[in-house]
Write a structure and sequence with these properties.
Layout lengths: L51 H5 L4 H4 L3 H14 L4
Pfam families: CxxCxxCC (PF03692)
């Protein structure tokens, strides 16, 4: 599956615990990444500063669903289910 242009759900829903360019404390779940532009496109896509977490994320129907709204729900659910107890 190719990324849905203008979705940005993977740049909002997941938590990134490692510091990265522009976000020295990482990113909280549900927080919009500072590199996500107004069109919901990653400003670091293809750049070496892009976090490993983001480079390794693959768009899949199971996590991206059929729409941006569904992707946000699915990714938020995965984030909640993967939180340490």
């Amino acid at each position: 599956m190719d990324c849905r242009v203008g979705c940005g759900a993977c740049c909002i829903a997941p938590r990134i615990v490692q510091a990265f360019h522009g976000m020295p404390h990482g990113k909280a779940a549900g927080e919009r990444c500072v590199h996500l532009d107004a069109d919901n496109r990653c400003g670091l896509f293809g750049a070496p500063e892009r976090p490993l977490f983001c480079r390794q994320f693959l768009a899949e129907p199971e996590v991206c669903g059929g729409s941006r709204e569904e992707a946000l729900v699915l990714l938020q659910t995965l984030e909640l289910e993967s939180e340490p107890a």
